[in-house]
């Protein structure tokens, strides 16, 4: 990169190059002086992966652009926090020592205590410890007011200022705009879709109407032509109509509606209006269908999305005499008797389940049942009833802790009745609208898909498949919890809420990826700093500088006299592996961090027991992560 830029100044002119230069220099310096914190700064290069996705890159650039405002807010917080810490040191001194580790006995611990109150983790412990440290009622009152005043200022005002900074620098509309742009995933979907079309044998215009691909006048003339298929068809048929040929009249009758305009009176530059264009393509579709073109191929021809070289000239465009002559002559006799049929000529969509036509008595009966308000009310009551049955059903057979509200036989009977009602509703809608094919097919609705899954689970349950104790049966029984989702489909307000939630999934997914990369970067740093150093002896007797070697044998409890083996083990959090490091930092990012922070300050060396605040500088790592992860990324 440096050689490509030519000069060092031009190299540093790019934000990406500047970041790469700083990371390289600091990580190299860390390796030279054997400082693990600096050496692990190379993990910041993980953020370079975001450059390959425009939305993530936009989030990263917004984060960098908000750094100045973020830094100013931190300075503002430090000024008020410094004043609070100085006042607390005079007010409490070392009175809180022995009551809690969050004290004001020195400036460092006082700053961390103020930061703890700022984030709110365990703030009540600090409050009651400060009040307990005072003997008089006035002292306790003053201590409580002092701690609460800082908590309110920090938690309710300064914390919300962080949100304001984010709102100012991050445009949700921009993020959604980037999400909607076609990217790598859309290109992949397009490639798969085109591959499926090729495999299915979907033909292009060139293969259906080969004469339409003849190039006349060279590429320049071809580029200047109109690509609107109805307009080209209009030009060709209008020219043919003026020739007053028998074939022209046949094609005009096949392509234009009987009540449409006279093509000889229309200028070649004027396109068809909406209704005439629709009628035109209905009849073109009929001609093609009568000519034996497959349904799938006919849809490709009628879609209007043709390649540029498929429309070469007005004379050879789709619908011209050259392209439609053979088709019209061969199909005219048969197509003429079919032009009066309904617009929907696709028989597969005309029959639900390929069995019940629109005029079928069975289909009409189920359509009336589907529209019935009585059935809708019965289904709603069945949903409520199934939820009640689900609530009173114990988690396993024979698991009885309280008096049963309903016996097993009654639950089974009502469950069968409710499942029968849901099955009737499903059959009525499928027969009335179709299962998959058709614009109003049952499975075209996502809510109906949810209903289908719930019904399938209920039917499996009725068959007795879930009666066993295997893992599959347990998982399927867990799926019963989806039954209340049926209620959402019946309530328009709840549907709007769920639909709005689903619409936010794409932007939220990118933010989750951004937060995940942040966790990965700090997790790699934490593994280098604290890997294996949180371990301690499970019993007293191996205090620092002792360690793993001394933590062996058995230990007798002084209180109960119980003999127990010693073990060298971690607390419930650690940085020993990538997974445990990610989980620990996720806990910290949810502002449940005090135990982790105190353990980090107590670490000594590998295989040595911790010591009280042996390495207080380790708190800087977690404080920085809290500022970035908890206050910035999470918000």
TrEMBL record:
Its main location: membrane. Keywords: Calcium, Calcium channel, Calcium transport, Glycoprotein, Ion channel, Ion transport, Membrane, Transmembrane, Transmembrane helix, Transport, Voltage-gated channel. One of its GO terms (molecular function) is high voltage-gated calcium channel activity. GO terms for biological process: calcium ion import across plasma membrane. The keyword Transmembrane applies. GO terms for cellular component: voltage-gated calcium channel complex. It is found in: Membrane. The chain crosses the membrane at residues 70-92, 143-167, 374-393, 496-525, 616-634. It is a multi-pass membrane protein. Residues 9-174, 373-635 form the Ion transport domain. This is Ion transport domain-containing protein. It comes from Hemiselmis tepida.
């Amino acid at each position: 990169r440096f050689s490509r830029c030519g000069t060092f100044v031009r190299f540093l002119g790019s934000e990406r190059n500047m970041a790469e230069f700083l990371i390289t220099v600091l990580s190299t310096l860390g390796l030279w002086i054997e400082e693990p914190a600096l050496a692990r700064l190379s993990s910041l290069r993980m953020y370079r992966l975001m450059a390959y996705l425009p939305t993530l890159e936009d989030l990263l650039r917004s984060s960098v652009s908000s750094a100045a405002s973020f830094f100013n807010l931190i300075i503002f917080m430090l000024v008020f926090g410094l004043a609070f810490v100085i006042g607390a040191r005079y007010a409490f001194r070392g009175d809180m020592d022995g009551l809690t580790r969050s004290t004001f006995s020195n400036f460092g611990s006082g700053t961390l205590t103020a930061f703890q109150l700022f984030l709110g983790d365990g703030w009540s412990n600090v409050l009651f410890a400060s009040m307990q440290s005072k003997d008089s009622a006035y002292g306790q009152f003053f201590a409580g007011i002092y701690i609460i005043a800082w908590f309110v200022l920090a938690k309710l005002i300064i914390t919300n200022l962080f949100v304001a900074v984010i709102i100012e620098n991050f445009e949700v509309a921009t993020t959604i705009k980037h999400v909607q742009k076609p990217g790598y995933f859309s290109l992949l979907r397009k490639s798969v879709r085109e591959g499926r079309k090729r495999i299915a044998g979907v033909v292009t215009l060139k293969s259906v109407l080969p004469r339409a691909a003849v190039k006349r006048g060279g590429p320049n003339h071809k580029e200047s032509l109109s690509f609107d298929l109805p307009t080209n068809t209009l030009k060709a048929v209008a020219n043919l109509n003026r020739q007053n040929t028998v074939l022209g009249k046949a094609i005009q009758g096949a392509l234009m509606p009987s009540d449409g305009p006279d093509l000889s009176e229309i200028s070649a530059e004027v396109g068809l209006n909406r209704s005439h264009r629709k009628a035109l393509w209905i009849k073109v579709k009929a001609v093609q269908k009568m000519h034996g073109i497959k349904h799938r191929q006919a849809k490709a021809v009628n879609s209007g999305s043709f390649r540029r070289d498929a429309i070469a000239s007005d004379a050879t465009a789709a619908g011209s005499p050259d392209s439609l002559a053979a088709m019209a002559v061969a199909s005219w006799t048969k197509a003429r008797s079919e032009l009066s049929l309904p617009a929907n000529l696709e028989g597969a969509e005309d029959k639900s389940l390929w069995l019940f036509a629109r005029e079928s008595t069975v289909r009409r009966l189920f359509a009336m049942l589907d529209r019935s308000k009585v059935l809708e009310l019965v289904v709603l009551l069945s949903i409520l009833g199934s939820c009640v049955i689900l609530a009173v059903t114990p988690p396993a057979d024979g698991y009885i802790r309280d008096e049963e509200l309903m016996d097993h036989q009654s639950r089974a009977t009502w469950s069968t009745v409710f499942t029968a009602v849901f099955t009737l509703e499903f059959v009525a809608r499928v027969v009335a609208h179709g299962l998959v094919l058709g614009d109003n097919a049952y499975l075209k609705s996502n809510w109906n898909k949810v209903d289908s899954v719930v019904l399938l689970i209920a039917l499996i349950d009725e068959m007795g498949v879930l009666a066993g104790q295997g893992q599959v049966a347990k998982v399927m029984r867990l799926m019963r919890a989806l039954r209340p989702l049926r209620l959402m489909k019946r309530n328009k307000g709840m549907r709007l809420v769920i639909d709005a939630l689903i619409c936010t999934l794409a932007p939220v997914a990118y933010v989750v990826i951004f937060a995940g990369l942040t966790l990965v970067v700090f997790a790699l740093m934490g593994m280098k700093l604290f890997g294996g150093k949180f371990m301690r002896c499970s019993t007293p007797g191996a205090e620092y500088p002792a360690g793993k070697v001394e933590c062996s044998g058995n230990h007798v409890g002084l209180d109960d006299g119980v003999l127990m083996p010693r073990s060298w083990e971690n607390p419930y959090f650690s940085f020993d592996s990538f997974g445990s490091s990610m989980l620990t930092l996720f806990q910290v990012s949810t502002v449940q961090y005090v135990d982790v922070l105190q353990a980090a300050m107590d670490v000594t060396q590998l295989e040595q027991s911790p010591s009280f605040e042996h390495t207080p500088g380790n708190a800087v790592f977690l404080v920085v992560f809290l500022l970035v992860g908890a206050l910035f990324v999470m918000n």
